[in-house]
């Protein structure tokens, strides 16, 4: 699936939201590791990623060629500052209407509107790909992310009090959220 849009951020800078390509693999991997170092709210620790550069290239190429998946980057002045993507929950008949969403932004760029732009872009792509429900999980203390998700229409449907076990903060409660993209599907 293809996406390309340029927006103006809160600081007046221009940001491009576009597909990650094979050529971005090195930068995407670096930003992935950096963002996972900068926050305790993501699912994995930086050293847990099993992706090599070649695997990342392959992954991004597959994403770009797939009509029901997307991996987006946010680029400011030629630098990748964040990523977001959607991936199907499953391909079988009973679950193929569901897609999961994830996003991370480099910390020095928080609060500028990049997260909102990436989130809205993923929702638009999920709609285009005919998904009916977009889903995510967020740590309950991640107030910034929760505010963003609620503002675009995600609603909570449950909590897991022992969802994550953080090395530094112990148990982290996970909030499950979903957004119906088509409330009355005729499918
Ligand atoms: C959560 C995250 C994606 C938000 O991205 P961002 O670029 O900082 O967000 P934006 O600047 O687009 O702001 C989006 C909304 O977040 C909320 N927000 C922003 N700053 C906030 C703050 N300091 N406190 C509370 N809410 C805040 C607001 O609702 C804001 O919308 P508005 O500015 O239109 O009012 C980003 O902080 C991040 O990558 N965090 C680490 C990784 C992570 O937690 N990912 C999500 C895992 S579920």
What would you say this structure looks like, in words?
The chain has four helices and eight strands; from the N terminus they run ββααβββαβαββ. The protein is globular and about 40 Å long. It has 187 residues and is of the alpha+beta class. Helix 1 (25-38) packs across helix 2 (53-65). The chain binds coenzyme A. Coenzyme A (COA) binds at residues 39, 41-42, 103-105, 110-116, 136, 138, 142-145, 147-148, 151.
Alpha carbon gap, first and last residue: 22 Å
Give the names of the bound compounds: coenzyme A
Q: What is the count of structural domains?
A: 1
- What is the level-2 CATH architecture name? 3-Layer(aba) Sandwich
pLDDT under 50 segments (min length 5)? none
CATH topology: Aminopeptidase
CATH class: Alpha Beta
Run of helices and strands: EEHHEEEHEHEE
Number of helices: 4
Q: What would you call the structural class?
A: alpha+beta
Within the largest sheet, what's the order of strands? 1-2-3-4-5-6-8-7
Number of strands: 8
- Tell me what portion of residues adopts beta-strand conformation: 35-45%
> Share of helix among residues?
25-40%
- Report the CATH superfamily: Gcn5-related N-acetyltransferase (GNAT)
* Mean pLDDT over the residues: 95
* Major sheet: 8 strands, mixed
User: Radius of gyration over alpha carbons?
Assistant: 16 Å
Query: Could you say which overall geometry the principal axes of the C-alpha atoms support?
Result: globular
Entry summary:
This protein has about 190 residues and is an alpha+beta fold. The protein is built from four helices and eight strands, in the order ββααβββαβαββ.
């Amino acid at each position: 699936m293809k996406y390309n849009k340029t927006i103006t951020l809160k600081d007046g800078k221009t940001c491009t939201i576009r597909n990650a390509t094979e050529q971005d693999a090195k930068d995407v991997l670096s930003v992935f590791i950096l963002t996972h170092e900068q926050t305790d709210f993501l699912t994995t620790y930086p050293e847990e990623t099993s992706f090599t550069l070649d695997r990342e290239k392959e992954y991004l190429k597959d994403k770009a060629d797939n009509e029901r998946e997307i991996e987006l980057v946010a680029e400011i002045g030629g630098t990748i500052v964040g990523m977001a993507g959607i991936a199907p929950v499953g391909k079988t008949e009973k679950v193929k209407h569901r897609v999961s969403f994830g996003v991370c932004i480099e910390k020095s760029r928080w609060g500028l509107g990049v997260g909102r732009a990436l989130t809205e872009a993923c929702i638009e792509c999920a709609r285009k790909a005919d998904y009916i429900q977009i889903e995510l999980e967020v740590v309950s203390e991640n107030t910034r992310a929760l505010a963003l998700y609620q503002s675009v229409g995600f609603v909570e449907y449950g909590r897991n009090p022992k969802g994550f076990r953080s090395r530094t903060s112990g148990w982290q409660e996970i909030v499950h959220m979903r957004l119906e993209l088509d409330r009355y599907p005729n499918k």
